[in-house]
Write a structure and sequence with these properties.
175 residues, alpha+beta, four-stranded antiparallel beta sheet, 4 helices, 35% helix
Amino acid sequence: MKTLRIKYIPPMIVAITVVLSFGLCLLPICLSYNEKTADYALVGSLVGMPVGVVLLVGVCSIKTLVKLGDDGVIRCIWLFYSWEIDLAKTESFSCCVQPHRARGGTVYSLDLVFISNKDGYEDESSLKVNVGASELRKLLKGEADDIDIMKIYKYAEALYPDKAKGLDVGEESIF
């Protein structure tokens, strides 16, 4: 069993962390409408802001542990949250490079997408990792074997070559 660490945070964890971070800042302000606690609202907000920022930075620094099993199941563990991607149940999988626009410019992510059909509905699981110019250069040259998320793709491709779709050149991809 091969083990990798990738910088991926499940979207549900990101949403919970953002809500908790802002809640720590806004809760004292909301409680300030009571006359007894009005004096502590400013102190609570000033304490809540750095605690919220530390929580957000702490959550963003934890990497996801990915275990590639011999049975064709990819097990992902992020701190206390775990999930599995069963390659036998997927219809196809591919990787693509997605642009994400931000204030500082464009950030690119390398997305590994697993598509399966559950109860007549198409279900899409994905692992996304931000990549820089050096990783994109390696990907274009075909030398992406040392990128961790591409190791996961190569593992899945070795087990199920008929389901592998390669580099997806969709409408949102940069290729």
